[in-house]
Amino acid sequence: MNNLIEKRWSPRAFEDKAIEKEKLDEIFTAAGTAPSAFNAQPWRFIVGNKFQNKSVYEQIFSTLAPANKVWAENAPVLVLTVSEIVSSYNGKLNSTAEYDLGASTAYLSLQALELDVYVHQMSGFDTAMARDIFNIPEEMKPLSVIALGYLGDKNILPEALAEKESSKRVRKSLNEVVMIDGF
């Protein structure tokens, strides 16, 4: 298996340190090279960088669920992911838009890790609030918030979260996820 895939995990302890612009450019360039149905590229990223555009960062942060706010405040970059669910090509529902955004964020995650930048994706945020703050049109759908940053010391976290940082990652076996003859 690819070393980056083996290394990938979702930390909560981030160093409160800026990510270089060149690295962020590489990360988002990689995200943009992901495959998508009909090459629609339905992904959009609203980037809040606490060292460059703190107001956008704070707006994204305000949408997070309380449990995510506890640890995400140390991440230097927060990204609101948005998917174009109505095709700009034909005006019809794009049934693969969310899937395509997932592929794009996977590329983003692996490129970030190649640059020693870690990623933690969150579904715990207020989508209606995000839609309102950023004037997201109906043909677009906010799907997740991503924290990016350099790995930090787990001791900055509350005890319960610090313990999770050290716990072994558990994955389902292949028998549970690969079906040969259907369900």
UniProtKB/TrEMBL annotation:
Similarity remark: Belongs to the nitroreductase family.
Matches recorded under Gene3D superfamilies: NADH Oxidase (3.40.109.10)
Lineage: Bacteria, Pseudomonadati, Bacteroidota, Flavobacteriia, Flavobacteriales
Domain Nitroreductase, first and last residues per copy: 5-150
Keywords: Oxidoreductase
Protein name: Nitroreductase
Stored CDD domains: TdsD-like
Pfam families cross-referenced by the UniProt entry: Nitroreductase
GO MF annotation list: oxidoreductase activity
Xref: PANTHER family: NAD(P)H NITROREDUCTASE YDGI-RELATED (PTHR43673), NADH DEHYDROGENASE_NAD(P)H NITROREDUCTASE XCC3605-RELATED (PTHR43673:SF10)
Source species: Acidiluteibacter ferrifornacis
